[in-house]
Amino acid sequence: MTTTEIFLIAMAIIFTVPYLVWRLGRTDYVAPLVVVQIIMGVVLGPGVLGRFFPEYHAFVFTAPVVQSLNGLAWWAVSLFVFIAGLELDLGMTWRHRRETSITAALSLGMPLILGCAVAFVLMTMGGWLGPAAQPWQFVAGVGMGCAVTALPIIILLMEKMDILRQPLGQRVLRYASLDDVAIWAVLAVILMDWARVGRQVAFLALFALATWGVRRLLARLPAADRWYVGIVWLILVALGADWAGLHYMVGAFLAGAVLEARWFGQAQVDQLRHHVLLVMMPVFFLSTGLRTQWDIGGAAVFLGAAMLLAASVTGKLLAARMAGRVLGWPPGEAATIGWLLQTKGLIEIIFANILLDKKIITHETFTALLLMAVFSTMLTVPIVYPRLQKARERLKRAG
């Protein structure tokens, strides 16, 4: 068969298998389609399909096919991260800066501390530290992996639970937005390449200057032209960031974060995010699954994932409880906010991909972080939705 035919077979598998599992298994309550796609990416990777059916895996996922899939995945995740940057509402965050800064700082700091402790434990064992990592980079990277909050996935889940446009949903978005900015800033520090520091300084200086010009330009352009200019801006900033030694995904996020979603229309931004998730991101999930490995043993990887998940969930819940006491939240609200903020989703996977690309973590650490992201996201709706229902019933009785 030709490479084109095998590529189309791979695409058929990527889009058909997760959809059938999601639809026929009726997993939407525990595992939305995006979570099933992530899981199936792991199943179709070398750790599962490649181990039990090596001939079929080798036949479908040949080097030319994988290279083509990787190209699609790079573009898909660039668009997705760009949209995540666009969705930041720093103006709203500033208007509620005391509440937001206290909650965001705690929800970032507590899981970061616990995650760093887990990273120290993992570092004493073999197979977790990346070949190009300094110990502090590994500890900070894994710690930040536990502190990640997946803003785009929280938006999808809160839409499902009908709280996105309610005051609680808007508050959670503010907390997650500020944490997103901090996470990407810390990631830039972790990735700082002192051999290329001149390039990085030059990139940041040019980026600041270009941002001023692009913002003025977009504010004056008709709506029909803004998306074209925005996409070109995304490509150039991602290229510049990668050239400087940061990472093209860091550039994609920065490209979106400095722009205003209102320039593009909130409905159109939501629609683009939906279409990217539908049409392109499944390829990224499969590409991610192909990078999972279990060389140090499946039990060790699952144990590492469990330790990281415990650090993340415990840290987020403790942080929300502390913020609730300081800010005087109603009873029960802190736990709901904590469970929402512990959602890892795609941002965790993107974060782990960057650490793996830079050889700060190994494939085994990457697999543990990926499993943590899956389990974290699967916990959110089954735990939060019943709490919301009880809160609504209490309000009805009180009314």
Features:
399 residues; mainly alpha; 19 helices
Structure in words:
This protein is mostly helical and 399 residues long. Helices cover 79% and strands 0% of the residues. Helix 2 packs parallel to helix 15 (281-289), helix 5 (63-86) packs antiparallel against helix 14 and helix 8 (135-147) crosses helix 16. The termini are far apart.
Low-confidence segments: none
Strand content: under 5%
What spatial form do the alpha-carbon principal axes imply?
Answer: globular
Structural class call reads: mainly alpha
Count of DSSP E strands?
0
CA-atom Rg in angstroms = 21 Å
Query: What's the SSE pattern?
Result: HHHHHHHHHHHHHHHHHHH
C-alpha termini separation: 68 Å
Report the helical percentage.
over 70%
What's the quaternary structure here?
single chain
How many helical elements? 19
Mean pLDDT: 86
Taking the sheet with the most strands, its summary is: none
What topology emerges from the helices and strands here?
Blueprint: H1 3-25, H2 33-43, H3 49-52, H4 54-60, H5 63-86, H6 90-95, H7 97-123, H8 135-147, H9 151-160, H10 167-190, H11 197-220, H12 223-244, H13 248-257, H14 266-279, H15 281-289, H16 298-327, H17 333-341, H18 345-357, H19 363-398
Summary, kept brief:
The chain is 79% helix and 0% strand.
